[in-house]
Design brief:
By secondary structure, the chain is of the alpha/beta class. It is built from nine helices and 14 strands. It has a seven-stranded mixed sheet. The chain has a three-stranded antiparallel sheet with strand order 11-12-14. Bound molecules: pyridoxal-5'-phosphate (PLP).
């Protein structure tokens, strides 16, 4: 087996113990004589799997009792529509655009009502979280939408913004489970699974109970939080295998010491990488210091050919998927929960070597 360090932004690395356990259980899950992929989602065996995934996630994330956890499909992008369909009661919502995905969410919401831009950092290629205060938000808006970690640009909110009485809705696709979060400050949190949770295909939604049950009448049943919640996320066949693997990841985080420990490790990894890049003369960071992400580190040399060479040479050394998104260029190292400290140390060493050789490598 020759595992590489994979810095892909998503789908991304999964913890090796999780993959190994899934492999062991692939053909015969717990003496059932079948794979989890082959099981009826209504079977007793599968019921235990999905329940355990819900319960472990609730414990790990410290989800308060008055919040429901929903396992949905369609990725975070489907939530860009599900959120306005379910929550736009008066038809008004305010959006903070801090990157590509929050821009898409804003655009989607405009189809369903009066979505208004609160703040944007587009003018500086989203190198920071735009500033705004409670006063910038319409008091009669149904919700304020933010994206907590901007995967493409490598920025992250340094604190949960105060939105007063207006519920805060948050896309946490690329930072969920990377740090402890006070869920009670949010009305709704959603995340596509393929960054920090598990395989693509599963989307997790954490929603305050009082926000469920007000969907527009023409909301598709599959996107209606009440329909999904009433059916315990089994209105139709759920993404069974993705939920099973996610459950193993939740257990892995819990056994490691939960979100406090996870955050401690993530801080250490990010600090190593940011320090290494800052010490070089060749490389420059994209994100402004106070907005830096712990999950996605964006940097470049300023010379597109040299960037390409860096990415290629790194791949030869077993460090893959380091090319930046085309909207930013340069490099992006995604160092999610499953990226071991050794992967970051190896990348730091290569950054130093490349810099010392002035790219002649
Ligand atoms: C990856 C990502 C998305 C898109 O997720 P899909 O599951 O592919 O729809 C949305 N928002 C953020 C912050 C992301 O990182």
């Amino acid at each position: 087996m020759n595992r590489v360090f994979n810095y892909s932004a998503g789908p991304s690395m999964l913890p090796l113990p999780v993959l190994e356990r899934a492999a062991r259980e692939m053909c015969d899950f717990g003496g059932s004589g079948m794979s989890v992929m082959e099981m009826s989602h209504r079977s007793k065996a599968y019921d235990a799997i999905i329940r355990d995934a819900f319960d472990t996630f609730r414990r790990v994330m410290r989800v308060p009792d008055n919040y429901k956890i929903l396992f949905m499909q369609g990725g975070a992008s489907t939530q860009f529509a599900a959120v306005p369909l379910n929550l736009m009661k008066t038809g008004k919502a305010d959006y903070v655009v801090s990157g590509e995905f929050s821009g898409k969410a804003f655009k989607e919401a405009k189809k369903y009502g009066d979505a208004r831009l609160v703040a944007s950092s587009e003018d500086t290629v989203f190198d920071r979280i735009p500033g705004f205060t409670k006063e910038d938000i319409r008091p009669d808006a149904d919700y304020v939408h933010i994206c907590y970690n901007n995967t493409i640009f490598g920025t992250h909110f340094s604190e949960i913004p105060d939105t007063g009485c207006v519920p805060l809705v948050c896309d946490m696709s690329s930072c969920i489970m990377s740090e402890p979060i006070d869920i009670s400050r949010f009305g709704l949190i959603y995340a596509g699974a393929q960054k920090n949770i598990g395989p693509a295909g599963l989307t997790v939604v954490i929603v305050r109970e009082d926000l469920i049950g007000s969907a527009r009448p023409d909301t598709p049943a599959m996107l209606d939080y009440k329909v999904i919640s009433d059916a315990d996320s089994m209105y139709n066949t759920p993404p069974c295998y993705a939920i099973y693997v996610a459950g193993l990841v939740f257990r892995w985080v819990e056994e490691l010491g939960g979100l406090e420990k996870m955050n401690e490790i993530n801080r250490k990894k990010a600090e190593l990488l940011y320090d290494a890049i800052e010490e070089t003369k060749l490389f420059h960071l994209h994100a402004q210091k106070e907005s830096r992400s712990l999950m996605n580190v964006t940097f470049r040399t300023g010379d597109a050919e040299l960037d390409k060479k860096f990415v290629a040479r790194a791949a030869e050394r077993g460090m893959v998927s380091l090319a930046g998104h085309r909207k930013v260029g340069g490099m992006r190292a995604s160092i999610y929960n499953a990226m071991p400290v050794e992967g970051v140390e190896k990348l730091c060493a290569f950054i130093r070597e490349f810099d010392a050789a002035n790219g002649e490598i």
